Amino acid sequence: MNIIQRNFFRLIRCGEFKKQEQIEPMSVSKWNKVYQLALMHQVIPSVYAGIQQCRNQFFLHLSDKQIKEWERAYIEACRTNKQEEENELLRADHLTNPLLNKKLQAILDDEKSDIATRQLLLIVIHIARHILNEGVPVYNLVELGKYLSSEGHHVDFQTLNKWLKSLGFNPMAQLEGALLIQMFGFSKDEIPFMLSEPDKRVERVAQELTEFTNTHTEEFYFSQDSDSVFVHTSNSSAILGHIRRSAQYFRYLPSETLTNFFASFAHSLSHIEE
To answer: Fewest CB atoms within 10 A around its CB: which of 41, 46, 197, 219?
Structure first.
Protein backbone atom coordinates (compact mmCIF):
# COMPACT_ATOMS: atom_id res chain seq x y z
CA MET A 1 0.00 0.00 0.00
CA ASN A 2 1.13 3.55 -0.63
CA ILE A 3 1.36 6.24 2.05
CA ILE A 4 -2.14 7.58 1.29
CA GLN A 5 -3.74 4.18 1.85
CA ARG A 6 -1.60 3.49 4.93
CA ASN A 7 -2.68 6.74 6.59
CA PHE A 8 -6.27 6.17 5.45
CA PHE A 9 -6.44 2.85 7.31
CA ARG A 10 -4.49 4.18 10.29
CA LEU A 11 -7.09 6.90 10.77
CA ILE A 12 -9.94 4.37 10.58
CA ARG A 13 -8.20 2.14 13.11
CA CYS A 14 -7.72 5.11 15.44
CA GLY A 15 -11.19 6.52 14.97
CA GLU A 16 -13.31 3.37 15.07
CA PHE A 17 -11.24 0.79 16.89
CA LYS A 18 -9.23 3.01 19.27
CA LYS A 19 -5.85 1.79 18.06
CA GLN A 20 -2.71 3.81 18.73
CA GLU A 21 -1.17 4.72 15.38
CA GLN A 22 1.46 7.18 14.18
CA ILE A 23 0.52 9.16 11.09
CA GLU A 24 3.15 9.53 8.36
CA PRO A 25 3.88 13.03 6.97
CA MET A 26 1.99 13.91 3.78
CA SER A 27 1.56 16.90 1.49
CA VAL A 28 -1.67 18.89 1.20
CA SER A 29 -2.48 17.18 -2.11
CA LYS A 30 -2.09 13.73 -0.54
CA TRP A 31 -4.36 14.70 2.33
CA ASN A 32 -6.91 15.72 -0.30
CA LYS A 33 -6.61 12.21 -1.75
CA VAL A 34 -7.31 10.73 1.71
CA TYR A 35 -10.46 12.85 1.76
CA GLN A 36 -11.46 11.54 -1.67
CA LEU A 37 -10.86 7.95 -0.53
CA ALA A 38 -12.99 8.48 2.57
CA LEU A 39 -15.75 10.07 0.51
CA MET A 40 -15.63 7.34 -2.14
CA HIS A 41 -15.76 4.55 0.42
CA GLN A 42 -18.40 6.29 2.58
CA VAL A 43 -16.23 6.29 5.71
CA ILE A 44 -15.98 10.05 6.33
CA PRO A 45 -17.15 9.69 10.00
CA SER A 46 -14.58 6.95 10.69
CA VAL A 47 -11.66 8.87 9.17
CA TYR A 48 -12.76 12.16 10.73
CA ALA A 49 -12.88 10.47 14.15
CA GLY A 50 -9.33 9.28 13.51
CA ILE A 51 -8.24 12.80 12.63
CA GLN A 52 -9.68 14.05 15.92
CA GLN A 53 -7.95 11.24 17.78
CA CYS A 54 -4.58 12.06 16.19
CA ARG A 55 -4.96 15.84 15.94
CA ASN A 56 -2.05 16.53 18.29
CA GLN A 57 0.41 14.43 16.30
CA PHE A 58 3.24 16.41 14.75
CA PHE A 59 2.77 15.07 11.20
CA LEU A 60 -1.00 15.58 10.99
CA HIS A 61 -1.19 18.94 9.25
CA LEU A 62 -4.46 20.09 7.69
CA SER A 63 -5.22 23.58 6.45
CA ASP A 64 -8.18 25.53 7.87
CA LYS A 65 -9.97 25.01 4.56
CA GLN A 66 -9.44 21.23 4.74
CA ILE A 67 -10.64 21.08 8.36
CA LYS A 68 -13.85 22.93 7.45
CA GLU A 69 -14.36 20.60 4.49
CA TRP A 70 -13.96 17.54 6.75
CA GLU A 71 -16.39 19.00 9.32
CA ARG A 72 -19.00 19.74 6.66
CA ALA A 73 -18.66 16.26 5.14
CA TYR A 74 -18.81 14.66 8.60
CA ILE A 75 -22.10 16.40 9.48
CA GLU A 76 -23.65 15.41 6.14
CA ALA A 77 -22.44 11.79 6.42
CA CYS A 78 -23.84 11.44 9.95
CA ARG A 79 -27.20 12.74 8.75
CA THR A 80 -27.23 10.25 5.87
CA ASN A 81 -26.17 7.33 8.09
CA LYS A 82 -28.91 8.12 10.61
CA GLN A 83 -31.54 7.93 7.89
CA GLU A 84 -30.20 4.55 6.73
CA GLU A 85 -30.15 3.17 10.27
CA GLU A 86 -33.87 3.84 10.56
CA ASN A 87 -34.46 0.94 8.17
CA GLU A 88 -35.46 -2.47 9.53
CA LEU A 89 -32.80 -4.32 11.51
CA LEU A 90 -33.10 -7.44 9.36
CA ARG A 91 -33.54 -5.95 5.91
CA ALA A 92 -34.43 -8.29 3.09
CA ASP A 93 -31.47 -9.93 1.41
CA HIS A 94 -31.47 -12.51 -1.34
CA LEU A 95 -28.98 -14.75 -3.10
CA THR A 96 -29.07 -15.30 -6.84
CA ASN A 97 -28.59 -19.06 -6.49
CA PRO A 98 -32.16 -20.42 -5.97
CA LEU A 99 -31.11 -23.35 -3.78
CA LEU A 100 -28.89 -21.22 -1.55
CA ASN A 101 -31.50 -18.49 -1.37
CA LYS A 102 -34.12 -21.01 -0.22
CA LYS A 103 -31.76 -22.08 2.59
CA LEU A 104 -31.06 -18.44 3.51
CA GLN A 105 -34.75 -17.51 3.72
CA ALA A 106 -35.40 -20.57 5.89
CA ILE A 107 -32.64 -19.43 8.26
CA LEU A 108 -34.02 -15.89 8.41
CA ASP A 109 -37.56 -17.16 9.02
CA ASP A 110 -36.48 -19.39 11.90
CA GLU A 111 -37.63 -17.51 14.99
CA LYS A 112 -35.80 -19.94 17.29
CA SER A 113 -32.43 -18.45 16.34
CA ASP A 114 -31.35 -15.17 17.90
CA ILE A 115 -31.40 -11.88 16.01
CA ALA A 116 -27.73 -11.04 16.67
CA THR A 117 -26.55 -14.20 14.90
CA ARG A 118 -28.88 -13.68 11.95
CA GLN A 119 -27.78 -10.06 11.68
CA LEU A 120 -24.10 -11.03 11.55
CA LEU A 121 -24.90 -13.61 8.86
CA LEU A 122 -26.58 -10.90 6.79
CA ILE A 123 -23.58 -8.59 7.19
CA VAL A 124 -21.23 -11.33 5.96
CA ILE A 125 -23.51 -12.07 3.00
CA HIS A 126 -23.96 -8.39 2.14
CA ILE A 127 -20.19 -7.88 2.05
CA ALA A 128 -19.75 -10.96 -0.14
CA ARG A 129 -22.32 -9.71 -2.67
CA HIS A 130 -20.72 -6.26 -2.63
CA ILE A 131 -17.31 -7.81 -3.35
CA LEU A 132 -18.71 -9.77 -6.30
CA ASN A 133 -20.53 -6.80 -7.82
CA GLU A 134 -18.52 -3.71 -6.90
CA GLY A 135 -15.25 -4.51 -5.16
CA VAL A 136 -13.86 -4.35 -1.63
CA PRO A 137 -16.44 -2.48 0.51
CA VAL A 138 -14.48 -0.58 3.17
CA TYR A 139 -17.61 0.88 4.78
CA ASN A 140 -19.23 -2.54 5.21
CA LEU A 141 -16.01 -4.06 6.55
CA VAL A 142 -15.85 -1.27 9.13
CA GLU A 143 -19.44 -2.08 10.10
CA LEU A 144 -18.53 -5.77 10.40
CA GLY A 145 -15.63 -4.90 12.69
CA LYS A 146 -17.81 -2.61 14.81
CA TYR A 147 -20.54 -5.26 15.06
CA LEU A 148 -18.06 -7.90 16.21
CA SER A 149 -16.67 -5.48 18.81
CA SER A 150 -20.03 -4.35 20.18
CA GLU A 151 -22.37 -7.32 19.64
CA GLY A 152 -20.04 -10.28 19.20
CA HIS A 153 -20.70 -11.52 22.73
CA HIS A 154 -24.39 -11.95 21.80
CA VAL A 155 -23.66 -14.07 18.71
CA ASP A 156 -23.91 -17.87 18.67
CA PHE A 157 -20.81 -18.53 16.54
CA GLN A 158 -21.35 -22.29 16.51
CA THR A 159 -24.71 -21.73 14.82
CA LEU A 160 -23.25 -19.04 12.55
CA ASN A 161 -20.50 -21.38 11.34
CA LYS A 162 -23.10 -24.08 10.68
CA TRP A 163 -25.12 -21.63 8.56
CA LEU A 164 -22.05 -20.42 6.67
CA LYS A 165 -21.08 -24.00 5.85
CA SER A 166 -24.63 -24.85 4.74
CA LEU A 167 -24.69 -21.82 2.41
CA GLY A 168 -21.17 -22.40 1.11
CA PHE A 169 -20.03 -19.05 2.51
CA ASN A 170 -17.23 -20.30 4.77
CA PRO A 171 -14.35 -19.44 2.37
CA MET A 172 -15.75 -15.96 1.75
CA ALA A 173 -16.23 -15.40 5.49
CA GLN A 174 -12.58 -16.37 6.01
CA LEU A 175 -11.59 -13.78 3.39
CA GLU A 176 -13.65 -11.10 5.15
CA GLY A 177 -12.00 -11.98 8.46
CA ALA A 178 -8.57 -11.80 6.82
CA LEU A 179 -9.43 -8.32 5.49
CA LEU A 180 -10.34 -7.20 9.02
CA ILE A 181 -6.92 -8.38 10.17
CA GLN A 182 -5.09 -6.82 7.22
CA MET A 183 -6.89 -3.46 7.14
CA PHE A 184 -8.04 -2.79 10.69
CA GLY A 185 -5.57 -4.61 12.92
CA PHE A 186 -7.93 -7.26 14.31
CA SER A 187 -6.45 -10.43 15.71
CA LYS A 188 -7.68 -13.89 14.72
CA ASP A 189 -9.03 -14.39 18.26
CA GLU A 190 -11.30 -11.36 17.82
CA ILE A 191 -13.01 -12.99 14.83
CA PRO A 192 -14.61 -16.24 16.11
CA PHE A 193 -15.80 -17.32 12.66
CA MET A 194 -12.18 -17.41 11.45
CA LEU A 195 -11.49 -21.14 11.31
CA SER A 196 -8.13 -20.98 9.55
CA GLU A 197 -5.10 -18.75 9.19
CA PRO A 198 -5.61 -15.63 7.03
CA ASP A 199 -5.41 -16.20 3.29
CA LYS A 200 -1.97 -15.18 2.01
CA ARG A 201 -3.63 -13.62 -1.03
CA VAL A 202 -5.50 -11.06 1.08
CA GLU A 203 -2.98 -8.32 0.28
CA ARG A 204 -3.83 -8.63 -3.40
CA VAL A 205 -7.53 -8.35 -2.56
CA ALA A 206 -6.90 -5.29 -0.37
CA GLN A 207 -5.00 -3.72 -3.25
CA GLU A 208 -8.32 -3.40 -5.07
CA LEU A 209 -8.58 -0.08 -3.31
CA THR A 210 -6.36 1.43 -5.98
CA GLU A 211 -8.85 0.31 -8.63
CA PHE A 212 -12.09 0.88 -6.73
CA THR A 213 -14.62 3.29 -8.19
CA ASN A 214 -18.27 3.90 -7.41
CA THR A 215 -19.30 1.08 -9.73
CA HIS A 216 -22.78 0.88 -8.25
CA THR A 217 -23.51 3.96 -10.39
CA GLU A 218 -21.93 2.34 -13.45
CA GLU A 219 -24.20 -0.54 -14.40
CA PHE A 220 -23.50 -2.16 -17.69
CA TYR A 221 -26.40 -2.97 -19.98
CA PHE A 222 -26.94 -3.91 -23.59
CA SER A 223 -29.06 -1.88 -25.96
CA GLN A 224 -30.02 -1.90 -29.61
CA ASP A 225 -30.60 1.11 -31.83
CA SER A 226 -33.99 1.23 -33.49
CA ASP A 227 -32.43 1.36 -36.96
CA SER A 228 -29.78 -1.30 -36.38
CA VAL A 229 -29.53 -5.03 -35.78
CA PHE A 230 -26.34 -4.61 -33.73
CA VAL A 231 -26.34 -4.80 -29.95
CA HIS A 232 -23.83 -2.77 -27.94
CA THR A 233 -22.94 -2.36 -24.27
CA SER A 234 -23.26 0.89 -22.36
CA ASN A 235 -20.08 0.43 -20.34
CA SER A 236 -17.44 -2.00 -21.53
CA SER A 237 -15.14 -1.34 -18.56
CA ALA A 238 -17.96 -2.21 -16.13
CA ILE A 239 -18.65 -5.57 -17.76
CA LEU A 240 -14.93 -6.40 -17.95
CA GLY A 241 -14.57 -5.52 -14.27
CA HIS A 242 -17.51 -7.77 -13.45
CA ILE A 243 -15.92 -10.66 -15.36
CA ARG A 244 -12.58 -10.11 -13.63
CA ARG A 245 -14.15 -10.07 -10.15
CA SER A 246 -16.20 -13.18 -10.91
CA ALA A 247 -13.04 -15.04 -11.95
CA GLN A 248 -11.02 -13.73 -9.00
CA TYR A 249 -13.55 -14.70 -6.31
CA PHE A 250 -14.89 -17.90 -7.87
CA ARG A 251 -12.77 -20.01 -5.52
CA TYR A 252 -14.31 -18.33 -2.47
CA LEU A 253 -17.97 -18.65 -3.48
CA PRO A 254 -18.39 -20.76 -6.64
CA SER A 255 -22.15 -21.38 -6.67
CA GLU A 256 -23.21 -17.79 -5.96
CA THR A 257 -20.47 -16.30 -8.16
CA LEU A 258 -21.76 -18.08 -11.27
CA THR A 259 -25.43 -17.30 -10.73
CA ASN A 260 -24.63 -13.73 -9.67
CA PHE A 261 -22.78 -13.09 -12.93
CA PHE A 262 -25.50 -14.61 -15.11
CA ALA A 263 -28.19 -12.72 -13.14
CA SER A 264 -26.33 -9.45 -13.82
CA PHE A 265 -25.92 -10.43 -17.47
CA ALA A 266 -29.61 -11.26 -17.80
CA HIS A 267 -30.52 -7.95 -16.17
CA SER A 268 -28.33 -6.13 -18.67
CA LEU A 269 -30.07 -7.86 -21.59
CA SER A 270 -33.45 -6.61 -20.36
CA HIS A 271 -32.59 -3.16 -21.77
CA ILE A 272 -32.71 -4.45 -25.34
CA GLU A 273 -35.91 -3.46 -27.05
CA GLU A 274 -37.85 -6.30 -28.61
So the answer is: 197
